[in-house]
Amino acid sequence: MELLIVDGANVVGSVPDGWWKDRRGAAERLRDRLAEHGGPAEGGPYEIVLVVEGRARGVAAVPGVRVEEAPGSGDDLIVELARNAAGRPCLVITADRELRRRVAEAGGRCAGPRSLPGRD
Fold first, then answer.
1. Region 79-83 average pLDDT
2. DSSP string spanning 10-38?
3. What confidence score (pLDDT) does residue 119 get?
4. How many Cβ atoms are within 10 Å of 105's Cβ, its own excluded?
5. What number is the average pLDDT over the span 98-111?
6. Is residue 4 packed enough to be buried (19+ CB in 10 Å), middle (13-18) or exposed (0-12)?
7. pTM for the complete prediction?
């Protein structure tokens, strides 16, 4: 099963819908959309991990979506998760260029936020 890691801060921040007023609520809406749609538009079975940081911490996991709170940098946790994917395919959803480079070095691949269903 492919590991799908979602950069919560980057994906939430990719749509100017008022997320900055309630970062945790925005992360919860993203989590719910991931649980409902099951991953990227391409389809496929995924273990979904949503990485949150800062004021988005405190988001609970739901069936189908594990939530990981970054103690510091969300990017550092994402790279660690990609590196520890245990040889299975790993896809990270982010538009962050530097994070994309680091994920590639860790053996993962990346797609942009628009690959998620329900994105404007």
1. 96
2. HHHHTS-SSGGG-HHHHHHHHHHHHHHH-
3. 55
4. 11
5. 95
6. buried
7. 0.89
